[in-house]
Amino acid sequence: MLIEIGHYALILALGLSLIGMLVSLRSCGGGEAPSSFFLQEQRGCLLGSWGGVAIAFALLTFSYVLSDFSVITIVENSHSSKPLLYKITGVWGNHEGALLLWVFILASFSLLIAFFSSLPASLERAILGLQAAGISAFLLLILLTANPFLRRFPPALEGRDLNPLLQDWGLALHPPLLYLGTVGFSVPFFCAVAALLTRSPAPVWARFLQLWSLVAWSFLTIGIMLGSYWAYYELGWGGWWFWDPVENVSLLPWLSGTALLHAALVTQKRGTLVPWTLFLAVITFSLVLMGLFLVRSGVLTSVHTFAVSPARGVSLLILFSIFVGGALGLFLWRCPVFQGQGSFSGMSREGGILFNTLFLTSVCATVLIGTLYPLFLETFTGIKISVGAPFFNLTLGWITAPLLLLLPFGPLLSWKKSGLRSAFHQLKYAGSLTLLVFGLISWVWGIRSFFLGAGLFLALWCIFGALFPLLLRLKKSEKSITRANYGSACAHGGVGVMLFGILATSLTQSETLLTLYPGEKASLGEYTLTYLPPRVFEGPNFQEVRFPFEVLRKTTVLGQVIASKRFYTSRASTTTEVGLFTRGVAQLYLSPGNFYPDQRLALHIQNKPFVLLIWGGGLMMALGGILVLSDRWRWKDKGERPSVLSPLTRLVNTKERQEAL
Amino acid sequence: MRTVLQQCLLAFLIFSLCFLFSVSLYAFAPEERSPNPLIEERAQAIFKNVRCVVCQGQSIADSEAAMAQDLRGLIRKELEAGLSPAEVMEGLVARYGEFILMKPRFAPHTWGLWLAPPLILLLGGSGVLFFLRRKQS
């Protein structure tokens, strides 16, 4: 019954969003409509369709919790013995549920805009209409090709369980955060398309677009970092980025989104670079949709899985083509309308940001080509090649080096026209300290590789270059320092911290592979690990052998760390849970290998002294974004704020409206 | 009495789980490294550029799959037999195809891949410079 109600709510949501779309067409077509004409109705429709999707999502989740094995997706992705948390997160651990979550977030964002934006009515109407169109398209896709509410008969006795690798808190949180980011970029996208459609001048929407790209970007940063940390500890070999196509497609919108939020800042503050901002807004969400198509259609794993079940892939491809083709076509057609005014010299904040976006889009294009090239090559010539880390490290290294070198200068340049003298003056301490620390580090660590050395230098340069100008301003006790200044310094410093983490870890990490009997000791660097007797542990849906180790540094006992191997009965599969011993930003990484009947254990121990800085830097970037947002964000600053219920009452009182007209 | 029973049970469980784990994909055992440090260093450099064909986008330097272990052993053996790193790579490509290289070769079919990034940067850069000159005048 619950499932049918959910199914019905989803269809209802589709109907309401279709109405919302049509209403906006009607109101856009009728020339200069009065300012609030039909806007309330559109808001009502969006509220209704959000409600429908929310009910559907809630009921599906509830059915997962109840383990209703008469529903196909629940049978395939759940199990009655699974812990409650993973029953809930299992909802989005599969294609159908992931799409439903996607639409739910899309609808939630449109709801926020419908009730809290301070855009002029004509633009808001167009944005809401486009969002209704987006929601309708995805709901149609779900109902036709990926319906999570389909029943089976007879009901199954037990489910097939979720892939044990996904039964983990990191992967439980990763998709929602990632979707908040990727779907968040739909707001700038629809805003750009609406601006192109209505020919709205930049000052009207630039601030809105900039803030929303910052919101999406912050979430996406956290989402990617979480995914990367999950890969690090769950896949069991200590790598944190694989240049795997699935990862790359999440990185693409992040790169173009970073370019977008900088370009949009120029558009907001100076009213220039307007076409470039619009283009980046269109491209960023296009990359999101492309990623959705690539990941969800199965093209990436192999071209052949795509051919096996084409319905899913083809419908996603059609959706992708309509949205992206339409938006790009519109951009090319209307772009001449948006000739930015205002001149600026190359040596200015605008010029700096322009170069920054150039490098970021080049990085983005390189990752895109590296991801898609093997796919196309195989399709057209049959030659299979791999494009792995060595390719990306080499090409991206060369492209990002100038970007990082110039990064500290950017925020110090003034708008329009600027000399370098003041920037140099503010950076002289940062520069000298960078040289000093770099010299010290390369002497201590004995760096021989040019690439590692250059990278390390740039990392330190970014950290100090973000820190020192701020300190100088603080010392002068300037009153004009805003939270946005702290935010940008935090984000820019985060880039350096992350790069430092990456390089320092690869320079200083050490590892050892050995087999131990209980009671035996293994030493790695300054640490000594004692293998204590293994214990068996009975988990809710798995059996586990735990391998406890006592960690000694020199002669002091630091504590215990447990690595384990799990056997999930429902899928008859085993997973390895690495043991992580954290000390400051350093981690000991223990992955257990073969476990023999005489309790001998093969063990891979890695000492990674700076590894946590990698994600720390990423979080600093996201925190920077949030700080800037906290400074600039305003909830609706227009006088009247519509009550949440007013559109509904208006919708009901159609007669009244007709009379009023 | 109870503790003895518990211990028996524990031993049995550990014993039975051992068999499950010893066949798992993640299984690994310390392997023999080459006694010659020069050869080991060369071997490690090669591992980073050889794809583990059964894993998702990992090189055999990082993978613990049985296939990666075998390949590591093979590469060490070939290097010890006196083959140069280039010859070892040649042999791998002949056996497994170009798919095994993590860093694709620079050849006519990969020109697009290798030349696109610098071209994009160059074109974009000249576009930006052109735009700036127009902006200034």
How would you explain this protein's 3D organization?
By secondary structure, chain A is α+β, with helices and mostly antiparallel strands. Chain A has 21 helices and 10 strands. Chain A has helices spanning 2-29, 39-66, 72-77, 84-89, 95-116, 121-145, 169-184, 186-198, 202-234, 245-270, 274-297, 303-308, 310-334, 349-381, 389-406, 420-445, 450-475, 483-508, 612-632, 646-652, 654-660; strands at residues 510-516, 521-524, 527-531, 535-538, 542-553, 556-568, 573-577, 579-583, 586-595, 601-608. In chain A, strands 2, 3, 4, 5, 6 and 7 form a 6-stranded antiparallel sheet that branches. In chain A, strand 9 (586-595) and strand 10 form a beta hairpin. In chain A, helix 1 runs antiparallel to helix 6 (121-145). With 137 residues, chain B is mainly α. Chain B has helices at residues 2-22, 37-48, 66-80, 85-96, 111-136. The model of chain B is unreliable at 18-27 (pLDDT under 50). Chains A and B meet through helix 14, helix 15, strand 1, strand 7 and strand 9 of A and helix 1 and helix 5 of B.
Descriptive terms for the model:
heterodimer; A: 661 residues; alpha+beta; 6-stranded antiparallel sheet; 4-stranded antiparallel sheet; 21 helices; 10 strands; 11% strand; globular; B: 137 residues; mainly alpha; elongated
Q: Topology of this structure?
A:
The complex is a heterodimer of chains A (661) and B (137).
Chain A: H1 2-29, H2 39-66, H3 72-77, H4 84-89, H5 95-116, H6 121-145, H7 169-184, H8 186-198, H9 202-234, H10 245-270, H11 274-297, H12 303-308, H13 310-334, H14 349-381, H15 389-406, H16 420-445, H17 450-475, H18 483-508, E1 510-516, E2 521-524, E3 527-531, E4 535-538, E5 542-553, E6 556-568, E7 573-577, E8 579-583, E9 586-595, E10 601-608, H19 612-632, H20 646-652, H21 654-660
Antiparallel strand pairs in A: 1-10, 2-3, 3-5, 4-5, 5-6, 6-7, 8-9, 9-10
Chain B: H1 2-22, H2 37-48, H3 66-80, H4 85-96, H5 111-136
